[in-house]
Amino acid sequence: MQTNRLFDIIYILLTTQKVTAKELSNQCQVSIRTIYRDIDRMSQAGIPIFTQKGSGGGVSLLSDFVLDKVLLNQSERQSILQALQTQDALNIDTATTESLTKLSALFGQISEPWLSIDLTRWYETDDYFEQLKTAILRRHMIRFLYYNAKGEYCDRQVEPLQLVFKSMSWYLKGYCLSKNDIRFFKLSRITKLVNTYHTYSDRRLPTEKLDKPILAEPDQVKLVMQVSAHLGYRIYDDFPISIIHQLPNGDLLVDGLVPKEDWLYSYILSLGENAIVIAPKSLKATILVKIEEMRKRYYE
Q: How far apart are alpha carbons 235 and 274 in whole angstroms?
């Protein structure tokens, strides 16, 4: 495309200072005549590009030229670079890094990214991210084995729609053929992913199905729990700061509404002797039952 070629010519001139029309034609894979027409268009647009004939001549830009003087103000340049830096930090597409490098040079702004994101786990896992992105963009149906909440492996055939990051986890949103409905699949539970390369068509689902939340709103319980001070780093990581209070002895008191799910029991038990549930009594009783069941298993 002509616009991309003009962009490439400017980038080449910014990085090499001076180049011959023949070299530009070879790099852009067009005729020398086309290169000279492009130079005329850029000159008419206000870009200070000029040519020199003879030995040592060539095509060049004024030494202090940056693209923003012609097209964008400071705020617009900064917004574009920050948006690209954010996408680059997610490490989703290598093309973003190339675009960021080029635009930084064109704007005359080379700076450290304002954001760095590392979504990798501490242990090695199957990296299906690139495969899923390709399947979504090309509308390819996929198949995989999925480990559901009941602890069962099931074979799923899915029309992938979107990758979603929520609550520290990645999910695949897609139309599940076995359930005939929109479903969310946690990426960490997906194995044996296969791209069938079979193209699916838009189902034109109603808005309420497409906007379906990842997880249903869970029931809540008012938890009151005292935790030893040296485990404060865990408490501040996992509970809203608004429900955490420091006691006179330095311990922390968690007092507020939390989701009433199985993770809560596991979480409390993981604190060991460093925590005690004060309320509700029903939760305290459940924890005691689980402790007793654990004790029996260790003495079997």
A: 12
Q: What is the DSSP letter of 91?
A: T
Distances (CA, A) of 74 to 12, 93, 98, 115: 23, 26, 21, 20
Helices assigned H by DSSP within 74-158: 74-89, 94-107, 129-138
* Model pLDDT for residues 165-221, shown as the tens digit of each residue: 877 788 999 999 999 999 999 998 999 999 999 999 888 777 666 666 666 667 899
Residues forming beta bridges with residue 58, ordered by sequence position: 52
Burial class (CB in 10 A: 0-12, 13-18, 19+), 273: exposed
How many CB atoms are closer than 10 A to CB 227?
21
Spatial contact of 221 and 283, defined as CB atoms under 8 Å apart: yes
Q: Tokens representing 265?
A: 């029991």
CA proximity to 198, closest of 157, 141, 137, 131 = 141
Given CATH 2.30.30, say whether it is the number of domain 129-210: yes
Q: Where in the chain is the domain with CATH 2.30.30?
A: 129-210
Annotation: CATH topology of 2-65: Arc Repressor Mutant, subunit A (1.10.10)
How many residues would you count in the chain? 300
Could you tell me which residues are beta bridge partners of residue 223? 256
> Which residue ranges does the chain devote to CATH 1.10.10.10?
2-65
Nearest to 98 by CA among 26, 34, 19, 15: 15
Q: What is the pTM for the complete model shown?
A: 0.54
In this structure, which long-range contacts are made by residues 73-79, counting pairs with CB atoms below 8 Å and at least 24 apart in sequence? Answer: 77/107, 77/109, 78/109
Terminus-to-terminus CA distance in the chain, angstroms?
Answer: 74
CB-based burial, 53-76: b 16+ in 10 Å, e otherwise: eeeeebbbbeeebbbbeeebeeee
CA atoms lying within 13 Å on the CB side of residue 182: 18
